[in-house]
Specification:
The complex is a heterodimer of chains A (76) and B (220).
Chain A (H helix, E strand, L loop, with lengths): L1 E4 L9 E7 L6 E2 L4 E7 L2 E6 L4 E6 L6 E3 L3 E5 L1
Antiparallel strand pairs in A: 1-8, 2-4, 2-7, 3-6, 4-5, 6-8
Chain B lengths: L1 E7 L1 H16 L6 E7 L2 E4 L12 H6 L4 E3 L6 E4 L3 E7 L9 H17 L6 E3 L2 E6 L2 E11 L2 E9 L23 H5 L5 H16 L6 E3 L6
Helix pairs in contact in B: 3-5
The chains are: A mainly beta (76), B alpha/beta (220).
């Protein structure tokens, strides 16, 4: 199981919002393809999937905030 | 490479941007910047809300105007002729991988560009963009894919500000927009604005001295 964690996006910024999931739970995802879009201030960050597998769980939904290092999803 | 797309449809320029991002990620091209002016169009970012569009879709389509949902940060904005739009395609991995620092750098480029016209552009804490005496002259909305940037900024030069009254720009109802022409009381040459912009862009981002390629001749 690979945990997808919120990466640091800017110095001194400890959180970001999830603005868009490119996939739903149960989808097959490939390493490197767009998985989730995060937003901080006027910038969006397209995060690639860190692994290939099935998107098992989404722990932070669209519109919700997360802290740097927090688990956003699990891929297995 | 700095590529001046001239007056171009938003969606067409978007395709060119995405293509450039893909090529930058693969290392096929170096850091690049696309410059453009767009035919009138409203775009709304991921975090934007449709209620910030104050005119019905029907009324808009009657005027031949569209609202496009786009994958940048920020709320709703307007693009039209007389507004300088820039889409930097830069690999931020080589530049500290910091989204907020990138936004501040874009503001610095704009503030430097405005100085050529003795206009004092300012940052306002918590309100990304460039402001002159409390009115907004330039808007930012960026995105990255694999730390390569796309989307970017728009600077109101000679643009018809009337279009902004159809929206709550950036989702703020109290906001007042301004332009270089509005402040100076005369229109200015877009090509000269672009030249000043490029000088500042190169300085702030330490870009190599590249030529400017023109893909479209500007419609007079």
């Amino acid at each position: 199981m690979t945990e997808v964690k919120l990466p640091p996006l800017a110095e001194g910024v400890d959180k970001a919002s999830v603005s868009y999931w490119h996939h739903s739970v149960g989808d097959n995802v490939k390493e490197g393809e767009d998985l989730v879009e995060l937003v901080t201030d006027k910038a969006t960050f397209n995060m690639p999937s860190p692994a290939s597998g099935v998107l098992k769980e989404i722990t932070v939904n669209e519109g919700e905030e997360a802290k740097v290092g927090q688990v956003l999803a699990k891929i297995g | 490479m700095i590529i001046d797309l001239g007056l171009i449809d938003y969606e067409e320029a978007y395709k060119i941007q995405r293509e450039s991002v893909g090529r930058r990620i693969l290392g096929e091209i170096d850091d690049s910047v696309l410059l453009a002016e767009h035919y009138p169009v409203f775009t709304i970012g991921r975090t934007g809300r449709m209620e910030n569009m104050l005119v019905s879709e029907k009324a808009l389509s009657g005027k031949g105007l569209k609202v496009l949902r786009v994958d940048r940060g920020g709320d709703i904005t307007f693009h039209g002729p007389g507004q300088l739009v820039a889409y930097p395609v830069l690999d931020l991995k080589n530049r500290g991988a910091d989204l907020h620092r990138y936004l501040r750098c874009l503001e610095e480029v704009l503030i430097g560009t405005l100085k050529n016209y003795s206009i004092r552009g300012q940052r306002l804490e918590g309100k990304t963009g460039v402001w002159v005496n409390g009115e907004k002259i330039a808007s930012l909305g960026v995105a990255v894919k694999g730390w390569v940037t796309y989307h970017g900024l728009s600077l109101n030069v000679n643009v018809d500000l009337g279009f902004f009254s159809m929206i709550n720009p950036c989702g703020m109802s109290e906001i007042k927009m301004t332009s270089v022409a509005g402040i100076l009381g005369r229109t200015v040459g877009m090509d000269i604005v672009k030249e000043g912009f490029i000088v500042n862009l190169r300085k702030v981002f330490n870009l190599k001295e590249y030529g400017i390629a023109r893909t479209h001749s500007r419609v007079a």
